[in-house]
Amino acid sequence: MTELQAATQEDLLAEALAWKAGGKGVAIATVVTTWGSAPRPVGSQLVIDDEGRFLGSVSGGCIEGAVVTEGLDTIQDGKPRLLSFGVSDTQAWEVGLACGGKIEVFVERLEA
């Protein structure tokens, strides 16, 4: 991880903590596994607040929307989720996983 990537990740976590301190519900989504081609490496994060605002990226494409939706559910019920996404090469560009591949994203609620 480069210094720029680390600073960006630190900024995301700082924003998540600021949202939490401001009384918002917050979830953090983290890429935990990739196979084949994936647009974001393991460790990439997306933070979501209870109004659906988000920062960061776990993949782009429609996967990001699905992760935000699951993040909102996680904020509500407190249950962590392990999400798996995979596509064939022919579907890859439609959903944002260039050249196919698979990705797993862990979503958890930020607790005080």
Keywords, separated by commas or semicolons:
alpha+beta, five-stranded antiparallel β-sheet, disordered N terminus
Write the SSE topology:
Layout: H1 3-21, E1 26-35, E2 45-49, E3 54-56, H2 61-77, E4 81-87, H3 92-95, E5 101-109
Antiparallel strand pairs: 1-2, 1-5, 2-3, 4-5
Structural class: alpha+beta
Helical percent range?
25-40%
Number of helices: 3
Radius of gyration: 14 Å
Explain how this protein is built.
The chain is of the alpha+beta class and 112 residues long. The chain contains three helices and five strands; from the N terminus they run αβββαβαβ. Strands 3-2-1-5-4 form a five-stranded antiparallel beta sheet, sandwiched between helices. A hairpin with a 4-residue loop joins strand 2 and strand 3 (54-56). Mean pLDDT is 85; it is low at 1-6.
Question: How would you summarize what this structure contains?
Answer:
The protein has a five-stranded antiparallel sheet, sandwiched between helices. With 112 residues, the chain is of the alpha+beta class.
